[in-house]
C-alpha cells in the first residue's frame, strides 16, 4: 500500500517553472525591448505561471488556448487534453497592440517600472470581453461582479506567448516565506514522508469546526491505510474582493491556531496559493483543485459553493434560484465530473460542523438532536468581532479570535 | 486505399434510435401517465433524439449531462467523453414539476394532445436560464437573440431522462420523404458505394458559387484517391428565425437546381437535418458537424461564421468587434481544435466564389484580377428577388431563382 502511494505522489503532474535560465542576460536584453505595463492582477498571474501552478501552460494564453479554455475548460497537452478551467490572459490596449506589432519579444513591467518577464513571439488577438465574462461566469457581462468588472475595464486585445520570468515574484509583505512553489511543496511533502496530501483551500479564518474536519479527515485516511497523511492548508493569496478578510489577517489567524495546536497531531504545511480570486463558482473550484496537483496534492476537500458569492442582481432573471450566483453543489459536482480530476485527485466529503451547545465544542451536525446545535454564520461572526462580543467557548481558538477582533475593530494588524 | 476508406465509413459512430420496440403497448401505457405538453421546439428535439443524431444521448439531458455540456461541450461516454456542443434539455414549469413529482414515467404530448414519447425515470433540475444562455452563446441573457428569448421564456425547471418515442416524427408538409434518418442515410451511402461523404450544411438557397465549390470538392477528393465521393446536401429543417428563407422555399430551390444539373456529375443525396437553429456560432458549428457523423459523414465543408448572426446590441460592450455576434473564423477554428472531431472528420477548406464578370460565371475569387469580380451579397440577392430584378446570367440556376423570386414577391410557394 505504502509503496503504491509513494509512487502516486512521485508521479504527480509534471511541473515546469518558467524562470530565466540566465536572469542577468535576460534583464540586459529586456532594456532594449518594447514594454507593456501590467497591473497587480497581471503580476499575480505571472507569479502563478512562473512557478508552474498552471503547467503545461507556458505563458499567457494564445488565441487557441483561450478558445479551448472558454469552450472546453481544457487545453491541448500533447495528443490529449488537460484541464485549464479559467482563462489566464493578458489584456492590452489598442496603443499597446500598436507598440508591440511585429516584435519578436516584449518585456512586461510592473507599474513602478521594474521589468518582470519577457514574452517571446507574442501574438495578439481579440479579448472579446463579453464572451469571456459570460462563458466563464455564466452571468451577464454588464453586471456588478467584481472580477467581471475588472475584465470589462481591461483592454480590447490580449497578448499571448511563452514567458520567461526574471526572478521569483515577491511582495515584501512579511509573508513571502509562506509562498512556497509547487516544486518546494512537493519536496517538503516528500521530506516529511507524506503518503497522502490533503488540501484545504480557504480564504476565510479557520474555526474549530474546520479544524475538527481536518483531524477527522486525517483519521479516516489512516483508517484507509495511509501512514502519514499531511494537511496542506492553502489560503488563497491573490486579489480578493473588498469585503473578504485580507490575507495578512488570515495568515495571522492561521499562525495562531497552528501554534495553539487546534489540528491536534495532524501535521500541517501552510502554503499560500498565489492566484487571484475570480468568484467563478464551478469553474474556479476546478482551477483550485487542478492547480494544487502541481504541489503534490493527492486528496481534496470540497464543501458547499466554495468559490461563490451573491448574484450581483440576486438572480433577477430567475428569482426562484435565490440570492446565490451558483448552485450550492455544482462546484463539487464538476470536480466529480471532470474527466481528468476524477482520476487524478480523490475528493473528500465535507462534513458540516456546527456549535454543539451541550459539549461547548464544534461538532459534526447531528440531525437527530438538531436543537443542541447553534449556527454561527460568517455574517454573525463578523458582527461579533466588530462589536467585541466573545463567541461561545470552543468556537475558535481564542488567540485566533483576537486577530479577527482586532481587524474588525479597525486596529492595525501586526505580523 | 478503397478498402481502408470503406472501413472508415463502416466504422461510423454507433447510432442508437430511441423508438419504442412495441409502439402499441407504449401508447396504451401512456394513456395512464401524467403528461407534459411540448412546443414545436421540444418536438424537433424529440425528432433529433429519436433518430440518433445526438447519440449516445438517450433522451433529454439529466443534470449531470447538462452541466458537462455547459462546461465541457462534451458528455461522458463509457470511460471517455464525446462531443455534445449544445444543451438538449426540456424546460418545464413549476406546475409541470409538481404534477410529475415522484412519477416513474411521464408522457410527452404535442400541443394538439397527440402523445409522442415516454420519459422513464424522469429527473427534474434547475433550468438556470441565465447560466444556460450566457455559457452557450457567450452573450448577455437579457438580449434580443431569438433563441435566447425562447430559453428565457421557457420554464424554470428542466426534466431529463431516457425517452421512448412512439413513432417517427413527421410533419405532413410534403417534405417528410427528405427527412432521412442517420441509419437510412448510412444505408443509402453504402448502397451507392460511397467511399467519402462530404456534407454541406446549409440554411440558404444554393447559388452557382456553392455548386462550383461542391464540384471542386468532389474533384479534389478524387485526386486524393477516393473513387466515389458523394455530396450530402443537408439543409437545416427545424426552427429558424423569421427573416431566414423558410424550409419549403429552400427545398423547392434545391430540387430545381439538382434537377437542372448544377452539381454536374457529382452525386448528391438531399437529406434534411431536423434540428432547430440556435445561432450559437462556434458551439453550433460543432453540433452541426458532430451530428452529421451519425449519418455517415467523413468530410465536412465549413466556411465563415456559418451559425452566426448580427450581435443583438451590435457589440455595445466592445464596439471594436464590429456588428457580428461571433468571430468570423471561430466556428472553423473550434472544429479544428475539437479533440474528437479533429480525429473523426476531415475538414475541407471553403474557397470563396464570386461573380466573374469576364466569364459571366461564378468563379473562385482571384485577388490578382479583383476588379473582374462582383459581389452579390445575401442582402442584395433578397432585394433583387423582391424587386423582380434578374441577377446576372450564371449567378444562379434560373428555375432556382424563380422559386426565390416568387417567395420574396409574396406568392404562395407550391411544393
Secondary structure: number of strands of chain A: 16
Question: What is the terminal separation of chain A in angstroms?
Answer: 42 Å
Radius of gyration of chain A: 22 Å
Largest interface: A-B, 41 and 41 residues
Quaternary assembly: homodimer
CATH topology name of the largest domain in chain A? Rossmann fold
CATH architecture of the largest domain in chain A: 3-Layer(aba) Sandwich
Number of helices of chain A: 15
How would you characterize the overall build of this protein?
Two copies of one chain form a homodimer. With 415 residues, the first copy, chain A, is of the alpha/beta class. Chain A folds into two domains: 23-165, Sulfate adenylyltransferase (Roll), CATH 3.10.400; 176-410, HUPs (Rossmann fold, 3-Layer(aba) Sandwich), CATH 3.40.50. The first copy, chain A, has helices at 2-10, 23-30, 40-50, 63-72, 94-100, 129-137, 146-153, 182-191, 208-223, 247-259, 281-293, 330-337, 341-344, 378-387, 398-408; strands at residues 35-37, 59-60, 74-77, 80-83, 90-92, 105-109, 115-126, 157-165, 196-202, 229-235, 267-270, 299-301, 346-348, 353-356, 361-364, 373-374. In chain A, the strands form four sheets. In chain A, strands 1, 2, 5, 6, 7 and 8 form a six-stranded mixed β-sheet that branches. In chain A, strands 11-10-9-12-13 form a five-stranded parallel β-sheet, sandwiched between helices. In chain A, strands 15-14-16 form a three-stranded antiparallel β-sheet. In chain A, helix 10 (247-259) packs antiparallel against helix 15, helix 11 (281-293) crosses helix 12 and helix 14 (378-387) packs across helix 15. The first copy, chain A, is globular, with a radius of gyration of 22 Å. The first copy, chain A, starts with a helix and ends in a 7-residue tail after the last helix. The model of chain A is unreliable at 1-8 (pLDDT under 50).
Amino acid at each position: 500500500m505504502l509503496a503504491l502511494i509513494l509512487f502516486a505522489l512521485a508521479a504527480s503532474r509534471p511541473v515546469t517553472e518558467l524562470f530565466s535560465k540566465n536572469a542577468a542576460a535576460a534583464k540586459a536584453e529586456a532594456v532594449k525591448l518594447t514594454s507593456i505595463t501590467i497591473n497587480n492582477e497581471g503580476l499575480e498571474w505571472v507569479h502563478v505561471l512562473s512557478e508552474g501552478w498552471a503547467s503545461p501552460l507556458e505563458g499567457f494564453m494564445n488565441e487557441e488556448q483561450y478558445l479551448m479554455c472558454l469552450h472546453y475548460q481544457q487545453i491541448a497537452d500533447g495528443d490529449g487534453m488537460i484541464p485549464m478551467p479559467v482563462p489566464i490572459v493578458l489584456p492590452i490596449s489598442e496603443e499597446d497592440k500598436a507598440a508591440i506589432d511585429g516584435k519578436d519579444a516584449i518585456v512586461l513591467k510592473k507599474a513602478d517600472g521594474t521589468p518582470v518577464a519577457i514574452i517571446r513571439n507574442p501574438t495578439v488577438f481579440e479579448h472579446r470581453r463579453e464572451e469571456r465574462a459570460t462563458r466563464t461566469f455564466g452571468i451577464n457581462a454588464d453586471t456588478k461582479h467584481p472580477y467581471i468588472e475588472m475584465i470589462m475595464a481591461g483592454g480590447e486585445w490580449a497578448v499571448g506567448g511563452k514567458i520567461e520570468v526574471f526572478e521569483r515574484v515577491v511582495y515584501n509583505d512579511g509573508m513571502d516565506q509562506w509562498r512556497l512553489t509547487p516544486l518546494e511543496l512537493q519536496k517538503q511533502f516528500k521530506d516529511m514522508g507524506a503518503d497522502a496530501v490533503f488540501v484545504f483551500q480557504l480564504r476565510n479564518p479557520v474555526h474549530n469546526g474546520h479544524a475538527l474536519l481536518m483531524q477527522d479527515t486525517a483519521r479516516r485516511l489512516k483508517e484507509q491505510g495511509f501512514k502519514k497523511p499531511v494537511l496542506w492548508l492553502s489560503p488563497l493569496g491573490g486579489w480578493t474582493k473588498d469585503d473578504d478578510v485580507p490575507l495578512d489577517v488570515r495568515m495571522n489567524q492561521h499562525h495562531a491556531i497552528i501554534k495553539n495546536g487546534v489540528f491536534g497531531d495532524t501535521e500541517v504545511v501552510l502554503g499560500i496559493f498565489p492566484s487571484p480570486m475570480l468568484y467563478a463558482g464551478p469553474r474556479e473550484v476546478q482551477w483550485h483543485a487542478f492547480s494544487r496537483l502541481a504541489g503534490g496534492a493527492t486528496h481534496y476537500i470540497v464543501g458547499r459553493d466554495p468559490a461563490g458569492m451573491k448574484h450581483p442582481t440576486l438572480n433577477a432573471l430567475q428569482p426562484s434560484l435565490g440570492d446565490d450566483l451558483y448552485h450550492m453543489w455544482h462546484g463539487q459536482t464538476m470536480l466529480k465530473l471532470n474527466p481528468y480530476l476524477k482520476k487524478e485527485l480523490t475528493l473528500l466529503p465535507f462534513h458540516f460542523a456546527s456549535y454543539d451547545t451541550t459539549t461547548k465544542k464544534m461538532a459534526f451536525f447531528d440531525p437527530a438532536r438538531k436543537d443542541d446545535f447553534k449556527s454561527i454564520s460568517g455574517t454573525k461572526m463578523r458582527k461579533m468581532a466588530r462589536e467585541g462580543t466573545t463567541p461561545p467557548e470552543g468556537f475558535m481558538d481564542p488567540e485566533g479570535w483576537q486577530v479577527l477582533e482586532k481587524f474588525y475593530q479597525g486596529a492595525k494588524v501586526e505580523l
